[in-house]
Automatic annotation (TrEMBL):
Biological source species: Butyricicoccus intestinisimiae
GO molecular function, one term: transferase activity
Designated name of the protein: Polysaccharide pyruvyl transferase CsaB
Cross-referenced PANTHER family: COLANIC ACID BIOSYNTHESIS PROTEIN WCAK (PTHR36836)
Keyword Hydrolase part of the UniProt annotation: no
Length: 745
């Protein structure tokens, strides 16, 4: 008789991290993750991978297997539904490349065995070496379903490694949710440790690291200052016992004031409770800072690792950051003064609340991964409150690509705008090649990739596409508040914005449609096939006032609701990048002019070269640098030779960071046939460059002054003192209009 066996149902989680090493921070991570898994399912079976499985089982009451017992791990992930990697900085090779590949291997094992894989409140980096970064990026991209990251630097780092497929979002370190002793129990703990509960204390979370020995005297001097100025007694709290006690003793040997050293291993809740009694905190150990901030204790981070920098930046406290290799007693004294100001504790309490709210997303994403998308968290997990995502308006933006171009740059600037933190934004792209640096995009903005329509769809009537094409698979089935076609040129972008569930649908207009239609034969042909899409949108945004009427005239939408919202100019990025060193110099005896843009008909470089021919017959000190590339490149090079300008005009190609080049110039020259808005003019204005552009382009750049006679301007312009402009009022007005567009019904 043949017996059939029912396939065993997957259940429970395998949790992998740097556990069983005696580090209070890592143990706190495990405690927090287990605490949150129990909220998902009180009876969830859990298996922890640990260097000391016996001790882990005893302390946490959980099944555990050894870090290097691969057969047991293989069996465990074959039975589990969820594999949790984290938190902590597992994906890094600052300590060891073997460690990096171990954790990458566990991700691969879990995926091969059919687990849902989540990186949970993780920190990323540093990962050194091109091959190591490539390998880490490939494995994470293929094996991880969701990555919740404890700071924005970690999210950027994954982006730099080429990670695109997993859902990635910034949350917070899981340990912010750790339960601690109540006040009375905490007082008793201090008394047990020989520390009076009613004292005034300055907490120290130190560790031995490169540069620490050189900093010891400076730290000791600052602690003596804290005692004399504020009566704060130093309390040395080891996060990794007993190793941190050795670092503490080096400072103690230099001290001439009272102190306390906790010279025994505490439970996690006890460590958190001790730090809750501090008036201020100086922490090298990341979790000494997290435990302090959890209790609203004003803190100073002395960084030895990018994770410390990332944490303080993530809570808006970058001003509390010093670095171990350069820290001085004076810097520490100033930071102690700051911590003791009356308003500081309120500031750090607010940071604690932000962290608590952000950390709740770890649990929310784990629940969605296990049980599918859900619209509400259980009352147990969220106290009946809406999730952070539900509290924010949701925006979907469709754009073809992030290749070189003004439209693409304007979207990157929009994604980097701090005001976008008010919203949850999904950006849908149809091409994975990215030219721009995406390191500054905001944490609540997620990038997703859709399959582009075939090229020949440009000549398929848009109405037919809407009727016949299957809908895209979007990141969520929940309706967006606003869906935006940011491109307005591509059929697939319009199709996405019109078919995604949304309350309002907006199209961005980037060009003067009347002139474009007149000037470009290809556009006239394609117009026949796509022009009907405009009538399907409820609202429009034009990047300048000057293109609103041409849009209405060409589309026939005389009563369309159109808002002028010029492109944002990220002056912070410009100023940061303009001083970067480059292997390039201009001739100081020349008057050096820059121009920048795509080399094709619209941008009018052929007009520019003819203008320059006339001018350079009279003026011999001009040098013109053209930054950009495009289909007309070779024709323009040949035209420059015919005009005798081969030693005057220099074709520089695309530069990923053009600002150091522009910063060396004396003026900026734009000669377009038409525009939507001349972003490059505003970027040049930010750097203080005098602007040369024809009067006809003024309508696209309200408040910038063009010239009637370009040749006369080129003949007589002289070098002037450049003054940078942060375009504060310009950008503020754009933000106001953008928010009004999103918030209005």
């Amino acid at each position: 008789m043949k017996h059939t066996h029912k396939k065993e149902e997957r259940r429970g989680a395998v949790i992998c991290g740097a556990y069983g090493r005696g580090n209070a921070g890592d143990d706190a991570i495990l405690r927090a993750i287990m605490q949150e898994m129990r909220q998902l399912d009180e009876t969830m079976p859990m298996r922890v991978i640990s260097r000391n499985p016996t001790e882990t089982s005893r302390r946490f009451g959980v099944s555990a297997c050894h870090t290097f017992h691969f057969k047991e791990i293989w069996q465990a992930v074959g039975k589990a539904e969820l594999f949790v990697s984290g938190g902590g900085s597992l994906i890094q090779n600052a300590t060891s490349s073997r460690s990096l590949y171990y954790y990458l291997m566990t991700l691969l094992m879990a995926k091969l065995r059919g687990c849902k894989v989540m990186m949970y409140g993780s920190g990323i980096g540093p990962v050194y070496g091109k091959f190591h970064r490539w390998a880490a990026g490939k494995i994470i991209d293929r094996c991880v379903d969701v990555a919740t990251l404890r700071d924005e630097d970690s999210r950027r780092e994954l982006g730099y490694m080429g990670v695109r497929k997993p859902k990635m979002l910034c949350t917070a370190d899981p340990t912010i949710s750790i339960h601690q002793l109540d006040r009375e129990q905490g007082n008793k703990l201090l008394e047990y440790l020989g520390i009076p509960a009613d004292g005034e204390y300055l907490g120290l979370g130190l560790r031995q690291w490169k540069g620490f020995d050189e900093a010891v005297e400076n730290i000791a001097e600052a602690l003596e200052y804290a005692y004399k100025a504020y009566g704060l007694i130093p309390v040395f709290v080891p996060i990794e016992y007993p190793n941190d006690c050795q670092a503490a003793k080096k400072v103690i040997d230099k001290l001439n004031c009272p102190y306390y050293l906790i010279s025994e291993q505490l439970e996690i809740s006890e460590t958190v409770s001790v730090l809750a009694h501090m008036k201020a905190m100086i922490g090298m150990r990341l979790h000494s800072l997290i435990f302090a901030v959890e209790n609203g204790v004003p803190s100073v981070g002395v960084s030895y690792d990018m994770k410390v920098d990332g944490f303080l930046k993530s809570i808006g406290c970058a001003d509390a950051l010093l670095h171990i290799e350069s820290v001085t007693a004076r810097q520490l004294q100033k930071q102690i003064d700051r911590c003791m100001q009356a308003q500081e504790r309120s500031k750090w309490q607010q940071a604690a609340q932000v962290l608590t709210n952000e950390e709740s997303k770890n649990l929310y994403e784990a629940r969605k991964l296990l049980h599918g998308a859900c619209t509400h968290q259980s009352n147990q997990a969220s106290g009946g409150q809406k999730t952070m995502r539900q509290q924010k308006k949701r925006i979907a933006i469709f754009q073809s690509d992030l290749h070189v171009g003004g439209i693409q740059k304007s979207l990157v600037n929009l994604m980097s705008l701090e005001a976008m933190d008010k919203y949850d934004v999904d950006v849908y792209l149809f091409d994975r090649d990215v030219f721009f640096d995406l390191s500054d995009i905001r944490p609540h903005i997620q990038i997703h990739y859709l399959k582009a329509f075939p090229y020949y769809f440009r000549i398929v009537p848009f109405g037919a596409i809407m009727k016949l094409m299957p809908r895209f698979k979007f990141a969520t089935t929940e309706p967006y508040d606003v869906a935006i076609d940011f491109s307005n040129y591509q059929q697939d972008c319009a199709f996405g914005a019109l078919t995604v569930p949304a309350k309002k649908r907006v199209m961005w207009i980037h060009n003067d449609m009347e002139i474009k239609y007149r000037e470009e034969k290809k556009y006239r042909i394609l117009w026949t096939f796509f022009h009907s899409k405009f009538h399907r949108f409820s609202e429009f945004v034009a990047v300048s006032d000057g293109i609103i009427q041409p849009f209405k005239n060409k589309t026939g939408l005389k009563n369309a609701k159109v808002t002028a919202i010029p492109n944002l100019i990220d002056t912070h990025e410009i100023f940061e990048k303009c001083d970067k060193p480059i292997d390039f110099d201009v001739d100081p005896n020349k008057f050096n002019i820059a121009s920048m843009g795509h080399l094709y008909h619209q941008k009018g470089y052929d007009i520019m070269l003819d203008q320059l021919k006339e001018v350079c017959e009279k003026r011999k000190d001009l040098a013109v640098y053209i930054f950009g590339d495009g289909p007309d490149h070779q024709a323009l090079v040949e035209q420059a030779k015919r005009n005798g300008l081969e030693h005057v005009v220099h074709f520089m190609g695309y530069q990923s960071n053009p600002y150091p080049y522009l910063n060396k110039m004396d003026a900026f020259y734009l000669e377009s046939r038409y525009e939507g808005q001349g972003m490059v003019l505003w970027e040049a204005k930010a750097l203080g460059l005098p602007l040369i552009f024809p009067k006809r382009l003024e309508k696209y750049n309200i408040s910038l002054k063009g010239t009637e006679d370009i040749q006369d301007a080129l003949l007589h312009m002289q070098r002037t003192q450049k003054t940078k402009d942060d375009l504060h009022e310009y950008n503020d007005e754009i933000c106001r209009r953008l928010i009004h567009l999103i918030e209005s019904d």
